[in-house]
Each structure stands twice: as C-alpha cells, then as structure tokens.
Amino acid sequence: MEVAMSHFARVDAYLQSHLDDSISELSRYCAQPSVSAQNWGLQETAEMTAEMLRQRGFEVKIFPTDGAPIVYGERKGRSPKTILFYNHYDVQPPEPLELWDTPPFEPAIRDGKLYARGVSDDKGHFTSRLFAIDALLAEEGELPCTVKFILEGEEETSSAHLAPFVRSHAELLKADACIWEFGGVDFRDVPMQYLGLRGICYVELSVETANQDMHSGLGGSIMPNAAWRLVWALNSLKGPDEAIRIRGFYDNVRKPTEREIALLEALPDPAEEYKTRYGVKSFLKGLTGGTPLKIAEVYEPTCTICGLTSGYQGPGSKTVQPAKASAKVDFRLVPYQTPEEVLEKLRAHLDAEGFGDVQITFLGGEAPALTDPDDPFVQLVVEAALEPYGQPMQIVPMVGGSGPNHVFIETLKVPVVTAGIGHPGSQAHAPNENIRLDLYLKGAMHIARILKAFGEN
Amino acid sequence: MEVAMSHFARVDAYLQSHLDDSISELSRYCAQPSVSAQNWGLQETAEMTAEMLRQRGFEVKIFPTDGAPIVYGERKGRSPKTILFYNHYDVQPPEPLELWDTPPFEPAIRDGKLYARGVSDDKGHFTSRLFAIDALLAEEGELPCTVKFILEGEEETSSAHLAPFVRSHAELLKADACIWEFGGVDFRDVPMQYLGLRGICYVELSVETANQDMHSGLGGSIMPNAAWRLVWALNSLKGPDEAIRIRGFYDNVRKPTEREIALLEALPDPAEEYKTRYGVKSFLKGLTGGTPLKIAEVYEPTCTICGLTSGYQGPGSKTVQPAKASAKVDFRLVPYQTPEEVLEKLRAHLDAEGFGDVQITFLGGEAPALTDPDDPFVQLVVEAALEPYGQPMQIVPMVGGSGPNHVFIETLKVPVVTAGIGHPGSQAHAPNENIRLDLYLKGAMHIARILKAFGEN
C-alpha cells in the first residue's frame, strides 16, 4: 500500500504539473470543428486524432468508411491483458450560436472550466485518457497493460458504420474489458459507474401533400395540408397519457430486476435537481420523485419529438398552406427491444392508422445493452475511484442515453464500464458545453489507476 | 342607345390614345418602393398618391396613423350620388429577388405586360381608375357622380389602422356604393364579380415546458416535451375527418342560400385545374369536384396550420427534447362568425381540453362579409362589363380569401363590388408580378361606364 501510494503520488504529481499542457492540447483539438450532422471537418479531425495517438507510441490505422473514418490505435503493455477505450471525435452541431457566451470553436477558460463544443462530449474524455497514459509512460516507461483505442466520427449521428466495423474487426479489437466514452460525477460530486445504455431508433417522419405551398384562403377547406397530416400521424403514436400506441411496442420490454431496483434505490432522488435545472413544474404520469421516478427515467422506452418543421416560421403572419412537413422522432429502447423491430412496427402502425402517406427515414439506431454490476472489472473500476474522488464509484445500472455499447458487449464479450470527466452542468448537446478542470485531473488520475490495477491483477 | 354608344366611343378613343401616358404614370408609381412589411417608402408613396389625385382636381387629405398614412380624396360630380374606391399604395416585399426577370422596382414592358412589384396589387388598379376619370373629365369636363378614394398603406400587413379610421370617419366616407381594390378576369378571360370575402382569425399557438432544451435520453420518459404538447393541442382542434372540434365553432355558420348555390353552379369546375397546378391527388372529405367542391371551398370555415416550429430542424439527427414549440394557425371564417368569437372559443377549448399551458397570440383578424348579388349596384357593374369584355361579369358570391370589406359593408352600409385589371397569371405576392396591358385598358373602360351609369341612373 505504501509502495502503491508513493507510485501514484508521482503519477499524480506528473498530472498536476502537466495539466496546462493537456488542456492546451484539448483546446487545439476542440478548435477543430468535427460536426458529423453537418459533415464538417471529420477527415481533418480523424487525422489529428491519429497523430495524437502516434505521439504516445501507438500504432495507428485510419479505416475509411462510407461515412467518417474510424481511428484505431494500439500500444502493447507489460501485461498482455488488454483494455479497449471507445471514444468519438465528432461533436454535436453548435447551433443555436447566439446562446454561446464565447464561440463554440474558440475554446475559452472561465471560472475553472473550459468551454467549447465537444469539450465534454467527447474530446475531453479522449485527451484525459491520453493524459493518464502520458503520466504512466513518464513514470514507468511502459504501460501496465495493453491499451487499444477505437474512435469513430459518427457517434452524434447514430454510429452508422461502427457496428459492422466492430463485427468485421473483432480479432483486432479483442480485449478483456472496455472503457466507454463518457463518465463522471453526479450533482453531489460522487463518481458514478453508468453500466447500461438504452437503445435508440431515430427517424424522420415526412409528408408531402402538394407540389407547392398554396394560399391558405384557397386550400384550407378542400386540399390536404402536410402540417395537419403530420400532426395527426404523430398524435397516433402517443397520446397525452404518454402511452405509446404502436401495436406490440412494449412486447419485448424487460422489467428491471430486484438487484437493479436496489441499485436505483441507493441513488439520490433527482427530482428537485431536475425541477431546478430545467424549470420543470411537474413530471409526467403523476411521478413526483424517488424510486418510481428513477425506474421510469431509464427502464421505460420513449417516443420523443426532437423537432418539427413546416410552412412559415418567421415573425408575424403568412397565410400559407404548407405542402411539406416533417418531424424528427427519437425512440429510446430498453432491453430487449431493437431498432429494427421498432421501425417495422412503426411502419405497420402508420399504415394501419391511415398514414401510408407519411414517409419514414431511418436516421440511426442502437440496441440497448447491459453490463453485469457484479462483474469483477466493474468492481475494480469502482474501487479505483477511491483515491482521486475520496470514495468509490456508485453504480447506476442503466442510464437514459444510448450508444453502441451493445456491439462491444455482444461481439467482443467484454464488460463495458464508464470512467470519465463529466459533470451535470456540462451542457453536452447544448450551448456553453464545458468541463471542470478539477474533474479533468481526477478523471486522468482514475484512468491511470485502472490501467495499473488491471495490468497487475 | 345610339347616343350612349357614341359617347363611349369617344371615351374609349381617349383611353386607347392615352394608354401610354397612363402606363408611364403607373411605371413611375411602381418605381417608388412602398413595402409595408419592411416600412420602406410609405410616407413618400402616400404623398405621391395624394399628388396624383390632386392633379385630377380631387380635394386630398393625408391622415397620419400609428402606422402608414391614409390618403383620402374627393371630387364632386354632376350627381351627388357617390362611389367610394378602396385601394392601397403598399406592396408585398419583393423577395426572393433572384427570381425576378427584371428588378422589381424597375418597371419593364415585355410581351404586352408591365412587370413590377405592386403593378397588379394594387397600384395598377388605382391608376386604371384615375385613367377612367381622366377620360370622363376630358370628354365631359366633370364627373358623372361624386367620387371618393380611400387608400391605405398597410393592406399587405393586415390593415391595422383601417377599421378604426373608417369607423371614426364614417361621415367623410359616406357613399352609396364601394368598388374594391381588386378584380379582373378568370382563366377563360371572363370578367368576374367577386362579392364576398371570408373572415380570418390568425393566431400563434406556443408552449414552453422547460427553461432549456434537454437531452432526449434524459427527458423522454419523465419530463414534458413542448413539441408533444403542441401536437396534442393541435390535434384537439381538428381531426383527420376535418371537423373542427372547438366547442360552438360552427354555431354562427350560415349555410349558403339557394341563390348563392345557383351562382356557384354556373361557375366552371376548378377541380382539374387545382389538381394540375398543385399536384394534389385528391380533395378532402371525399370531394371530387363540381358544386359540392365549390361550396366547400368558400362556405366552410377552416382551421389551417400555416407553420410548425420546434427543436432541431437541420439535417440528420439531434437527440434533443424541445423546451419550446409553436404553430401558426389561420382560421377562415364564414358569415356570421367573427374573429373575436373564435379567439374566445379557442381559449375556452384549450383550457377545457387540458391545454392551459398553450399560449395564444392574436396576429390579426377580419370578419367575413357579403354583398347581396341582387343589389342593383352589383347588377349595374355586371352589365357595364358587356362592352369592354364582350360579356357581362360572372358573379362569384364568395371567395376564399379575406380582407377589410366588412368594415365598409357594416359601417358605411354600402354594397362592395370588384372591378379591376387582374388576371390569373398576375403573380401577385410572387416574383414577376405583372398586368396585361389589354386588360388594363378594358378595366379603365369598365370603370368609366360604371361611373357614368351610376351617375345617370
């Protein structure tokens, strides 16, 4: 223990004294836009990512796909045991630009935070891992275990090419455990171990009723209106009772286990924090907080309208009957639903309800997936948090978000854990995205300990 | 009859020989921008309008309002019987500029047409009336009846100051009949008498469920979504059967009379033209054409979504749960509905349906109004078309659009008729707005005959 402490004292000292260097590298990385939804800067960022890995002695390969390239890096360690990091170099669109206090691609430090689009999701996670590797290499000259990185550039647009890549490169990616792209503390500053992810099926519903918009004085009584068709089609999916009306939608929904519910019960009640942060007056379905809210939050599938577009949207009035209308709709899935199943049931539902004119464009999907909270690697990662954070991680068996963890869990047969630098105010996907520099440092300390403990056990 | 013919032969000869002068005056008038939506050139155009009236011996007054000035002109005639012309000197915005073949404020003649923003709507209508007056004054030295003009500068932005002005200046505007700002021929070149206008109540419905957008992985199961609230609120207004569900909405709807139905029956069937022009496959409510289609088109009130806005509307996917959503909604009203009544019933409906969170912003309204097709003045105007057009006007008892005709009908107790220079390809409100010079001449001939017949009967 004394030896271990003195060892980590040196690693921690390295991290503390080199924090500015790592933040500078992260700032340069964030200044390079990489907006997958807008196909902006992806190739450049893939090459930048590869170079950052090469500088740490990784063997790197950039794999082209029909979308953004996948970057792979590997460096052997003292132990052949292998940890695989999954990260992504793409970011969310920066809009609405007017709500940013400083420009999204001009990283700026204020009050102990670094602000930039992608700084938390996910560029800061990647560089904090490189930072931990820098410290281990500086102190030991080699890594305690073999480390692999896979970074994609399409995470924010549903990872279209990741799953086939992982399936066709299972040997290359072979590992004993996987550390996921994100992680961090909750509002109490307690480090959290997020184990399961919901799935997602993201579609655009669109309808076209004429070859041009028409004067609303002409069309209103006799000609079809695309906006109305869309509203009625959406209304057929879910009513104000929040029950999703697609036939068979709930057939494959697994209820949470007693162990999962016990883990949820141990977590703080998020009700007041949500109300304060989002200015929400009350929750859906009569929920008020506690375990029922926590269960509903992650163990229920959703049907969310993410966007609506039709006709005139400017100031004042324009008397037009729209020829086109569309909606972005996001279904979050729980075990054992699949996006393919939802797509099929959605089409059948719309046809059965008389909305054969509503087109479905599939914009991306992921299956839900779980890692066993009692897996030994989970326990190692949980315990490794003790020194940096002053306490072990608390396990969250499932979170509301989605990602391609199922591909790794099912194809590579690895546990997938989280360990990262996020905090509840990080504004991921929103203006003024940021990281806290203190948590950036702690996150790197945690990763260094995980690699060391894993290599030596 | 011989005398009358010879009289109009001289008037017609004057019009034919002075057409170029009138078109030159119209061109100068159109070269002066007067875009009410952009508050561009309104004062200058009001003064130009006043000067054009003064040159014909009218006593003119410019009334300032909180918006654009109202121009009033009056010239006594042989008979004290009075015709009031309603016109407007403002025009639609010229955008999109790149679609104009020649610049919108540089009038150009091509293929027997004059092109310019506002040339049809409504500047050419005004000058063609002045042109008829020029001919009568040249031939007779005085007008056969008293003529009044009222021109506003806010017609294209909902005539905010017209109704209160008319109500507070009823004595000044006192007349026996009113000729409306527009008119013209249909696609067969048959002159049309458009008698009634539907009313309108234009609102924006908006809902806000949180103080910011949230990640859709977080909010979907437990927190309210503004886009869903809006969809459900809209769906409560009208279902796929097209029946408007607002309680009492149809209470004051007057069915068309047998006379009105007979007038509609005499009109050509618009079904095929609509299908071709708009690419519409079928009509609503099982309508296929003929009189039922013509009745539904104008004698049924509507609830039209003119625009929808919420959340992410760009390319690809963004996993966001919107905090705000809004819709532009246009109700077309039929006698005896009123915009005030609809606003009140809409609020009561939303509250009763559980949508107290949906805000209503009133963006403008007009009551519907009718002129009796058997009014003697209507018959006079219809018959006066015989010589210029080779046939009398065909009466359309009601059209789908809206305007402030109700203010004149109700306040001044006058019949309101149309007589004008428009044609179906005039591109009013669109690029390459134009008039046909042959119809400009016929329109002036028609107006001269109306004034003469009215003064002498």
Question: Could you describe the 3D structure shown?
Answer:
Two copies of one chain form a homodimer. The first copy, chain A, is of the alpha/beta class and 457 residues long. Chain A folds into two domains: 2-196 and 369-456, Aminopeptidase (3-Layer(aba) Sandwich); 198-253 and 300-366, Alpha-Beta Plaits (2-Layer Sandwich), CATH 3.30.70.360. The first copy, chain A, is built from 15 helices and 19 strands. In chain A, the strands form five sheets. Chain A has a six-stranded mixed β-sheet with strand order 1-2-6-3-7-18. In chain A, strands 10, 12, 14, 15 and 17 form a five-stranded mixed β-sheet that branches. A three-stranded antiparallel β-sheet of chain A has the order 4-5-19. Chain A is globular, with a radius of gyration of 23 Å. At the A-B interface, β10, β11, α6, α7 and α10 of A face β11, α7, α8, α11 and β12 of B. β12 (302-311) of chain A pairs antiparallel with β12 (302-311) of chain B, so a sheet runs across the interface.
In short:
By secondary structure, the first copy, chain A, is an alpha/beta fold. Helix content of chain A is 37%, strand content 22%. The first copy, chain A, has helices at 2-17, 19-31, 42-54, 119-140, 162-168, 216-219, 226-237, 258-265, 271-278, 290-299, 339-352, 376-384, 386-389, 405-412, 437-456, and strands at residues 59-63, 70-75, 79-88, 108-110, 113-115, 145-152, 177-179, 184-185, 191-194, 197-208, 214-215, 302-311, 320-321, 324-333, 359-366, 394-396, 399-402, 416-417, 434-436.
